[in-house]
Amino acid sequence: MPATSGSVANGNAMGRNQVRDDEEGDPTVKVQTIDELHSLQKKKSAPSTPKSSQPTSFFNISEEERNKQQLESISASLASLTRESGPKVVKGDPAARKFEASRVAHVPAHIRTPTIAVSDSSLKFTHVLYNLSPAELYEQAIKYEKGSFVTSTGALATLSGAKTGRCPRDKRVVKDEATENELWWGKGSPNIEMDEHSFMVNRERAVDYLNSLDKVFVNDQFLNWDPENRIKVRIVSARAYHSLFMHNMCIRPTQQELENFGTPDFTIYNAGQFPCNRYTHYMTSSTSIDLNLGRKEMVILGTQYAGEMKKGLFSLMHYLMPKRQILSLHSGCNMGKGGDVALFFGLSGTGKTTLSTDHNRYLIGDDEHCWSESGVSNIEGGCYAKCIDLSKENEPDIWNAIKFGTVLENVVFDEHFREVDYCDKSVTENTRAAYPIEYIPNVKLPCVGPHPKNVILLACDAFGVLPPVSKLSLSQTMYHFISGYTALVAGTEEGIKEPQATFSACFGAAFIMLHPTKYAAMLAEKMKNHGATGWLVNTGWSGGSYGCGSRIKLSYTRKIIDAIHSGSLMNVEYKKTEIFGLEIPTEVQGVPSEILNPENTWSDKQAYKETLKKLAGLFKNNFETFTNHQIGENNQLTQEILAAGPILDDA
Ligand SMILES: Nc1ncnc2c1ncn2[C@@H]1O[C@H](COP(=O)(O)OP(=O)(O)O)[C@@H](O)[C@H]1O
Ligand SMILES: C=C(OP(=O)(O)O)C(=O)O
Ligand SMILES: [Ca+2]
Ligand SMILES: [Mn+2]
């Protein structure tokens, strides 16, 4: 028996008798071993939603049966298609759990592909970390992934490896009987073909890699807040960073939705740490991002940049939604207090995330939306903000969203205090924060809204000749939507070191699957039916081209956007510009009037004229690809759109 006098020496006024363990407030833990003590620390999570009297589902099956079905479904996802039996999957962290035979789900031998002999991999177990929580994923990342750190505000800083941006030239789409006619192929199209066989080679490579690991992460989540058009996705990945990224970016299922998840509509195999094989047909580098619409699968090899997963799913939606007469949009979206919805189209770095995150409005989403008969819906459950030069002052809501749970990619921080230096470009200019949408305080949940009132086209004009804002006719809106002009800003795509003029149809050519005119016709019809107004906003240069002028102040752009939202820009005077024929307002509250016409901001008027003509020439040249395509049902719209572009007298 221990001496009892110690408690008095501790100064405990109540006194204490450690022999009596029935005393109230006894400070002694009632365990026999340290291990037992540790086992007390973690309370068991509620295993499932309590089985209420509600007709929850006809999935009224036991916990055990549900677990078994889940494991069988994951086994099927991970099964090799060429061997009789692949690794067995078992749930849980290999480091934390002892092997239990009862947890094993054997891979069903179900595929008709000719099989080859059983290998050692059939004797191996792959642990599945299924829909882990952010806290669990932090621990996995910090324990096992080099370059993972907690920042001073609680975010998880990670490195994406050698690739710090998307690789559009390494994206492949399987061309088969169906997709050959359905999709947009050839010049200007983002869809570089591969055949089914090469896809299977890469798929097997990814599956083998994933199965060779001790553990893989599996996320079962949703896309699209429109309940009637929700898509179930499964993401199998090797890194906690990827799992947390998708946890944040896709819609998070409730416990009950997860129980009833069943079979996914689409599966991503992310084996990004492992390269593709250059000897595989169609491969041109060690990176390959392969989309197979028939199999409803995507394979990632040779890049760990997490944006590939989110944008890969966006491509999928650009295929699936138009089939249902729903328009998929590369745009941000927010809603005013009075219910007015605005869309913000634009390529990477033009300001979709920045401008849709507006303290005075409700955020519906920052990047990917659907416009259906019932209004708009966000595809995602999170935001992916650029954070180069991020400041609390300019972007307070994004700044405050960088806290526990947020993934911070490729940022540089102080090694001791872990304060992030958002100006540091040592790793890349394309530093990113991925956070759940509810980290933005004035989010609209669920992320849906009525039909848009304003359609804002954002262009970051590196030539500095487009006006900060102009009001567009419907045919001008279509012309600029199909053109998709901007300057690519360094970092988001590989190989871009400084702003470069680029045209990307529908402000997202890298993600569209059908011919641009298909999306344009849908947009024209929707804008007409719902009386939406189009605007062109230049968030790029003013007072000269890149290198000479400077980027338009964010505070001015915000004032312009405010004036669009409030409707005040509907009732001001306009002047039409030469060549582009753009209607420029003569005043906008809070913006110096002289900058509204870019000609005023250039000291060298001749240089301005020449640059304007040069850009007009680039527009015309780019649009030539589309002149032979009819837009919508009648040819009149097509003619109007063609006439809505810049006019060069001497061309
Ligand atoms: N006038 C401006 N309008 C919009 N963004 C601006 C402006 N000036 C600078 N920026 C910066 O440009 C970047 C826009 O990026 P982001 O909003 O993430 O674009 P997107 O979501 O379209 O890819 C942000 O870093 C923002 O701070
Ligand atoms: C993630 C991306 O989107 P954005 O830059 O438009 O936010 C991207 O283009 O890789
Ligand atoms: Ca963005
Ligand atoms: Mn985007």
UniProtKB/TrEMBL annotation:
<dbReference type="InterPro" id="IPR015994">
    <property type="entry name" value="PEPCK_ATP_CS"/>
</dbReference>
<dbReference type="GO" id="GO:0006094">
    <property type="term" value="P:gluconeogenesis"/>
</dbReference>
<keyword id="KW-0963">Cytoplasm</keyword>
<dbReference type="InterPro" id="IPR001272">
    <property type="entry name" value="PEP_carboxykinase_ATP"/>
</dbReference>
<protein>
    <recommendedName>
        <fullName>phosphoenolpyruvate carboxykinase (ATP)</fullName>
        <ecNumber>4.1.1.49</ecNumber>
    </recommendedName>
</protein>
<dbReference type="InterPro" id="IPR008210">
    <property type="entry name" value="PEP_carboxykinase_N"/>
</dbReference>
<dbReference type="GO" id="GO:0005829">
    <property type="term" value="C:cytosol"/>
</dbReference>
<feature type="region of interest" description="Disordered">
    <location>
        <begin position="1"/>
        <end position="57"/>
    </location>
</feature>
<keyword id="KW-0456">Lyase</keyword>
<dbReference type="GO" id="GO:0005524">
    <property type="term" value="F:ATP binding"/>
</dbReference>
<comment type="pathway">
    <text>Carbohydrate biosynthesis; gluconeogenesis.</text>
</comment>
<dbReference type="GO" id="GO:0004612">
    <property type="term" value="F:phosphoenolpyruvate carboxykinase (ATP) activity"/>
</dbReference>
<dbReference type="InterPro" id="IPR013035">
    <property type="entry name" value="PEP_carboxykinase_C"/>
</dbReference>
<comment type="similarity">
    <text>Belongs to the phosphoenolpyruvate carboxykinase (ATP) family.</text>
</comment>
<keyword id="KW-0547">Nucleotide-binding</keyword>
<keyword id="KW-0312">Gluconeogenesis</keyword>
<feature type="compositionally biased region" description="Polar residues">
    <location>
        <begin position="1"/>
        <end position="10"/>
    </location>
</feature>
<dbReference type="Pfam" id="PF01293">
    <property type="entry name" value="PEPCK_ATP"/>
</dbReference>
<feature type="compositionally biased region" description="Low complexity">
    <location>
        <begin position="46"/>
        <end position="57"/>
    </location>
</feature>
<keyword id="KW-0210">Decarboxylase</keyword>
<keyword id="KW-0067">ATP-binding</keyword>
